[in-house]
Amino acid sequence: MPVMPDVVPVSDLRGRHKEIFQKIEDGPILLAQHSRPAAVLVSVADWNAREKHLELLEARLKYLEMKRQYEENPPKLVSFDEIEEEIKARQ
């Protein structure tokens, strides 16, 4: 279960940006504007890791979808001899 990120008012960015950027290394920071969530700050390393994880999940999903389609409608395999016969018949 993910840990709740620190919440920082957007207005604090101006005066505490160095401190806030250091805290990003510990995990995401939720920026709040008018006491409502406005954005999330994450480190570049965290962002890259999340993007890589997302790419892997998307690739797995695509694989599973292709596998499902193959199982529902397997392709008809054609032998080389059948191809030659088809070519000869068209000539």
SS-based class:
alpha+beta
CATH class designation of the largest domain: Alpha Beta
Number of helices: 3
Our measurement of the CA-to-CA distance between the termini, rounded to an integer number of angstroms, reads 67 Å
Q: Return the average pLDDT rounded to an integer.
A: 90
Supply the CATH superfamily name of the largest domain: YefM-like domain
List unreliable stretches of 5+ residues. Answer: none
Q: How is the biggest beta sheet arranged?
A: 3 strands, mixed
Could you tell me the radius of gyration in angstroms? 27 Å
Q: Please tell me what the overall shape is.
A: rod-shaped
User: What is the name of the CATH topology of the largest domain?
Assistant: YefM-like fold
Care to describe what's here?
There is one protein chain. Helix 1 (12-24) links the parallel strand 1 (6-9) and strand 2. The chain is an alpha+beta fold and 91 residues long. The protein has a three-stranded mixed sheet, covered by helices on one side. The N and C termini lie far apart (67 Å). It has three helices and three strands; from the N terminus they run E-H-E-E-H-H. The protein has two domains: 1-42, 3-Layer(aba) Sandwich (YefM-like fold), CATH 3.40.1620.10; 43-74.
